[in-house]
Amino acid sequence: MVFRKLPGVSASGMGLRLSQKFVFLLFLSGLVTLCFGALFFLPDSVRLKRIFLSKTESQPVTVGSENDVREHLKKGAKDPEHLRGITSAKGETSTKLKALSRKPSVTNEAKTDKKDAGGEALEDMTLSRSKTESASKDEKVTSSSNQGANTDTSFDYNKFKKCLLKPPLGIEHGKPSDPQTLQRREKVKEMMKFAWDNYKSFAWGKNELRPLTRNGHIGNMFGGLRGASIVDSLDTLYIMGLMDEYNDAKEWVETSLDLNSNGEASLFEVNIRYVGGLLSAYYLTGEEMFKRKVMVLGEKLLPAFNTPTGIPRGVINLGSGTSWSWGWASAGSSILAEFGTLHLEFVHLSELSNNDIYTEKVMNIRKLLNKIEKPHGLYPNFLSPVSGNWVQHHVSIGGLGDSFYEYLIKSYLMSDKTDEEAKTMYYSALEAIEANLVQKSPGGLTYMAEWRGGILDHKMGHLACFSGGMVVIGADDGAPEKRQHYLDLAAEITHTCHESYSRSATKLGPEAFRFDGGAEATATRLSDRYYILRPEVIESYMYMWRLTHDPKYREWGWEAVEALEQHCRVEAGFSGIRDVYAQTVSHDNMQQSFFLSETLKYLYLLFSDDDLLPLEDWVFNTEAHPLPVVRKSCLQGEGGTHDKTTSE
Ligand code: DMJ
Questions:
Q1: Domain extent listing, the chain
Q2: What family is this protein classified in (predicted)?
Q3: 416: left (phi > 0), else alpha (psi -120 to 50), else beta?
Q4: What per-residue confidence (pLDDT) applies to 103?
């Protein structure tokens, strides 16, 4: 539009007539309104939108991506398919959570949305404050969102011990009688000591060890909490009888684990590693300090559930209690494997505190998942915590979905087989998985494909290899006529996962392997070739060994030990590798904390007798922290089901 000054006509300083100026201003304000309104329709990943609308509340956001947080952060720029705008791997360059996500103010959202959704948000906020004094100044709950969960810490540990069927550490700490197995077990113990000693020397108090550069890594998954490797190692050190190391770890937790952090944490990661690690340490040792710590931490996680549906968001600020969804998660959604992997720990938080709030939180998730319509009986990976609806139809037994299924069967087992709802949900989910995802390759390998709105992606992630173990621990409790079928399925999946290891040059398995374009259990993409000391394949060997005693599982476990020693052991610890198919490996400079809590623990159990943490009494959380079966009637009654034929 061109404005010209007309002779003899009064005009403004800009040379416009009043009416022209008015029309121009009208046009301008219309344009501004239009642009601002358009912001609401932009995907949440658009930076402009985050700048202008960063504090907006209940509007679902739209950010496309797949795979779980761990996977996103790990894959980082390596794999564009998995990533929109996230640049680092867990254990590699740090990623700023703020850049990934938006932060709705939970408090306001809870207030505004409760009526519509019938959620529990407001109830949470009106709970009385904690009656329990914190154990130390470190443990003072400073969060404004303190919801008064710590009500009663008078859990009777002695009674709990009497309700176990067997001594946790067996007759002789599970020492195998066969000399070769014993020697192998000793080797695993030496690996643990080596990994621990190096962590202690170079990264003490940090979250993980960087073994090449000999320093510590903090990362951004734990909201400012430190010592992830220490908390993750407590039970492994204890069951291996590494008592000096265990005592160092315990002392650090007591004196230096500061729970008053104010950072942004993954609810899932803090739960499985810190809550799980502290719970196990308490149940195994009876040290009250672990219980006090875990109660304080558990309470700090509660505000994440203050959403219209009660489905927690993925990220929580441990100080303020503010929570929000991962920036990469589709449409502000929560992730199935994250909100579906809280049940075991939260039930135990209720047990220890005598406060049902934790159980209520996870039962509410269960209720919603049970009720919601499922495409072909399958559970998609993304769910809106605002509407309670699925956001995308991507189903996977690997990243994003995995431990949700694991926690269904384990909830049943941990309830002393009383949680019928979990049982029904697990076996129906497994039926749907078998009907839609389980495939046989041309070469005869059974695998679990991924499902995208009805279309199969013939890929199996390393993470999905836990499912051999999951299927075998549930084999006995399904329909009797299916028992053998489940045993066979578990064996076939474990065999496929072993193939993914044995077909590589290093005899370690890639992050993901495919069954298309001529591939059979091998990675076809460069970005899928790495191995980060993951436990899932070894986890399945351990369960398969316990439930079948087929010696091949111990042999396969030993192959993994040799490969780890040859390719992952470096001068100052263990490191992941970038390409399992390369003859000469390149290390990623990260000793993951789950290597100490899971990989080495499962190997140690594989070479131990079955009475070390007997499966009748213990269920492992998804980070391999053992949690006891809850025998309600025994705990509430006289107690005492202890098998007297065995000794402590
Ligand atoms: C662990 O942190 C847990 O096992 C989790 O469930 C997924 N995988 C990593 C290790 O691979």
A1: 173-636
A2: Belongs to the glycosyl hydrolase 47 family.
A3: left
A4: 40
